[in-house]
């Protein structure tokens, strides 16, 4: 899953990036509102973390522009502004969740996982596909009840397929949602990683749809 962080405080932005990457996300960071609005308007993110007090373009304006343009990505606002009127302005602009600084980094991770899961149409925190299970809150896979050992890249690929089980995900879509904007998407690394995941699953759960992409068996329950 790919996250956009828009935060003008460099230390906080770095801390968020490191925390989210350690939790299994691919992360892009923008340090002002203009760059953040542009990235959110042109790149396919699974969620955004948005500060309100930004240089060049403020967070509420960014959110309003995204929503007016039909950008439906879940947005978690992080801000030092704690007055109810300011929170209301964020929600009226289209925010999905709101946290006031200072905050716990782990809570940011849990809230983002919940936002992404619900945006994909899953009500419960646990997703199942045959012997495969994903605890979306803990960020852990298990196979037949045994923890599944995955690298960070393998986890992102399988998690994206799990959230969209039963639908064909193109190679381009998968690459766009599991890697940041600096990744070389002409690489054959995706095919290599899909092969490794298949061997670890020991079950025919990931199907190749020739000329279209990949599909995780649609036996997912929530």
Automatic annotation (TrEMBL):
Signal peptide: none annotated. InterPro entries: CheY-like_superfamily, OmpR/PhoB-type_DNA-bd, Sig_transdc_resp-reg_receiver, WalR-like, WH-like_DNA-bd_sf. It holds the Pfam family Trans_reg_C. Residues 124-218 form the OmpR/PhoB-type domain. CDD domains: REC_OmpR_EcPhoP-like (cd19934), trans_reg_C (cd00383). SMART domains: REC, Trans_reg_C. The keyword DNA-binding applies. Transmembrane segments: none annotated. Gene3D superfamilies: 3.40.50.2300, 6.10.250.690, Winged helix-like DNA-binding domain superfamily/Winged helix DNA-binding domain. PANTHER family: REGULATOR OF RPOS, RESPONSE REGULATOR PROTEIN CARR. This is Response regulator transcription factor. It comes from Ferrovibrio xuzhouensis. The lineage of its organism: Bacteria, Pseudomonadati, Pseudomonadota, Alphaproteobacteria, Rhodospirillales.
């Amino acid at each position: 899953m790919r996250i956009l962080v828009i935060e003008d405080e460099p230390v906080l932005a770095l801390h968020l990036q490191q925390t989210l990457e350690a939790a299994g996300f691919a992360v892009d960071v923008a340090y002002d509102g203009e760059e953040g609005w542009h990235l959110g308007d042109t790149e396919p993110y699974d969620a955004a973390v948005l500060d309100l007090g930004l240089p060049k373009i403020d967070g509420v304006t960014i959110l309003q522009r995204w929503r007016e343009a039909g950008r439906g990505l879940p947005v978690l606002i992080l801000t030092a502004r704690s007055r109810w009127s300011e929170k209301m302005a964020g929600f009226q602009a289209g925010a999905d969740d709101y946290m006031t600084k200072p905050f716990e980094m782990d809570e940011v991770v849990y809230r983002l996982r919940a936002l992404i899961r619900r945006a994909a149409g899953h009500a419960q925190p646990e997703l199942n596909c045959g012997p495969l299970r994903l605890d979306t809150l803990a960020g852990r896979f298990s196979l037949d009840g045994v923890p599944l050992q995955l690298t960070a890249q393998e986890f992102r690929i399988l998690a994206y397929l799990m959230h969209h089980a039963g639908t064909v995900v193109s190679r381009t879509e998968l690459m766009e949602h599991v890697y940041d904007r600096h990744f070389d998407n002409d690489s054959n690394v995706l095919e290599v990683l899909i092969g490794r995941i298949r061997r670890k699953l020991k079950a025919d759960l990931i199907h190749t749809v020739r000329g279209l992409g990949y599909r995780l068996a649609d036996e997912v329950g929530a």
